[in-house]
Structure formats: C-alpha cells, structure tokens
Amino acid sequence: MSFIAELWQPILLSAFLAFVISALAWTMLPHHKKEYTGLAGQDAVIDAIRKSNPAPGRYVFPCAEDPKERRSPEAMKRWAEGPSGMVTIMPKGPMGMGKMMVQQFVFFVVTSVFVAYLTSHTLAHGATYLTVFRVSGTAAILAYVFGTIPESIWFGRPWKSFGLGAIDGVLYGLVTAGSFGWLWPRG
What we know:
- By secondary structure, the protein is mostly helical.
- The chain has a domain at 2-38 and 94-183.
- It has eight helices and two strands, in the order H-H-E-H-H-E-H-H-H-H.
- The protein has a two-stranded antiparallel ribbon.
C-alpha cells in the first residue's frame, strides 16, 4: 500500500480530470447528444411497464428462464417475431445526480489506484515522463474502454454507443497518463 502514499497526487489529479472530462462529455460536447432516443409510443410502453410494476433491475424480453423452454418452438417463434431487447428499470423518482456524481468520482479514484499499483510495480522512481505516460496510459485505457466491449457483444449495446464511450475512455486514459507522467517520483 506504500504506492498509494507515494502516488496519491496523480491518483487524485487523474480522477479529478477524468471526472471533469466526463462531465463535459455528457453536458457540453456533441458526441453523446443523439446516443439515446425515445421509443415511438413511449407513453403506452411506460403504462405497460407501470402496470407490471417491476422492481428496479435488468430485464430481458422475450424471456425463457428454463434452458429447455428457450429451445421450444414457442420461444423460437417469439424471438423470430420480435421485438427482443433488454430494459433497465431504475428506482422511481428523479435521478439522484449528486449520488451518481459521487459514485462516478469514486470509480475514477479506484481506477487510478489500480493504475498506480500497476505502474508502481512496473517502473522505478525516476522513470521518464514518456515511459510513465505509456504504461499508465495503457492501463487506464484498458480499464476505461475495453471492459465495456462485452456489453456490445452479448447484450445488444450498439457498437456506435461503444465507440462514443471509447472516445471518452481514451480521453480519461490520456489525462491519467499525463497526471502520472507529470507527478511520477523522480528521485
């Protein structure tokens, strides 16, 4: 845990900068503006969901929980006729932006702690800026970008959405790399 004492500055700086870029990406930059759209007839869809009163969670449709049922002609017909998809039901009420922002910052701090761990066990004190940038940036980009690929492979997240998130992740990785490169112990 001594790496945290040595690298607390780049950990916190990189988390703060990634948080700022995240906020800018979702509020001011144009690339996420058309990522989500409403359903046609959304009022009817909302009414149908409200009537079934699902608890917050992730749901799939059509759903066949028993593997034997998934291969039945009825299940195959439902899949063929469509639609199919996944829905995330959030708790009722307005989104708790304060709580979500704190969670996002904690995510950036935890990721930076892991980047610090890897980089501190890979490089010695006095490593050059570019060497630290390469190692910490690679680790950060792997963390911020590549962990979301299975969402597109298995769960229908549009590849365009992955690509837009990857742009953000690369930016988070670059500010992480710059923070670690700049504040790396020199002696």
